[in-house]
Specification:
Pfam family, one: YceI
Helix content: 10-25%
Organism: Arenibacter certesii
Number of helices: 2
CATH topology: Lipocalin
Radius of gyration: 21 Å
Structural class: alpha+beta
Distance between the termini: 48 Å
Protein name: Lipid/polyisoprenoid-binding YceI-like domain-containing protein
CATH architecture: Beta Barrel
Largest sheet: 8 strands, antiparallel, barrel
Length: about 190
């Protein structure tokens, strides 16, 4: 009977130590909107175009800064904060994204497939996650560069997508005489702090 109690106490203490050490090593970073950038690049029959996200939020949890292990990553963009500098184009963008019903664009990490250290606090990662645009959720792969320095984390990357993969009809203008290409490229430089 006594041996059973000792085992329970040791197991309980070990569990508490592991739980406590995990909370000590996990570091939480929040996206800094003013320092982060996300640009969507595309083409049309008239000229190339780009829109820039003005409002985004996000959370990154690093479970081990030495190895670059991630526990969580989510980035959310307010759909109507995507701006081109041309109000007519913005209206077409919001219509295509159905922003009346779908206010945000969301990426949520599901798996880190590979991490390669690229210097002190620098990591190259192959990840996958769910990207939701205009209410359509798709699993995508995403390559990231992560830099951890002091209280700051920076994520950089580029991702090519097709609008039609998210059931978005590429916008048209001037009664259909100007058509937008299906292919887009998203470039991001995401800055987060503790």
């Amino acid at each position: 009977m006594r041996k059973f109690n000792v085992n329970r106490i040791v197991t309980g203490m070990l569990f508490m130590v592991l739980l406590f050490s995990n909370t000590l090593t996990a570091q939480k970073y929040n996206l800094v909107n003013g320092e982060s950038s996300l640009v969507v690049l595309g083409t049309s029959s008239l000229h190339d175009w780009e829109v820039t996200a003005e409002k985004q939020t996000g959370l990154l949890v690093v479970t081990n800064a030495e190895t670059g292990a991630l526990g969580q990553l989510s980035i959310e963009v307010i759909a109507e904060s995507l701006k081109s500098g041309k109000s007519a184009m913005d209206k077409n963008t919001y219509k295509a994204l159905n922003t009346n019903n779908h206010k945000t664009i969301l990426f949520k990490l599901s798996e880190v497939k590979e991490v390669k250290q690229n210097g002190t606090g620098k990591f190259k990662m192959k990840t996958s996650g769910d990207l939701t645009i205009a209410g359509v959720k798709k699993a995508i792969s995403l390559d990231l560069d992560l830099v951890l320095i002091g209280n700051k984390a920076t994520l950089n990357g580029t991702k090519k997508l097709k609008m039609t993969d998210f059931k978005i009809d590429p916008p048209k203008a001037l009664l259909g005489t100007i058509t937008t290409g299906d292919d887009i490229t998203i470039k991001f430089n995401t800055v987060l702090t503790k």
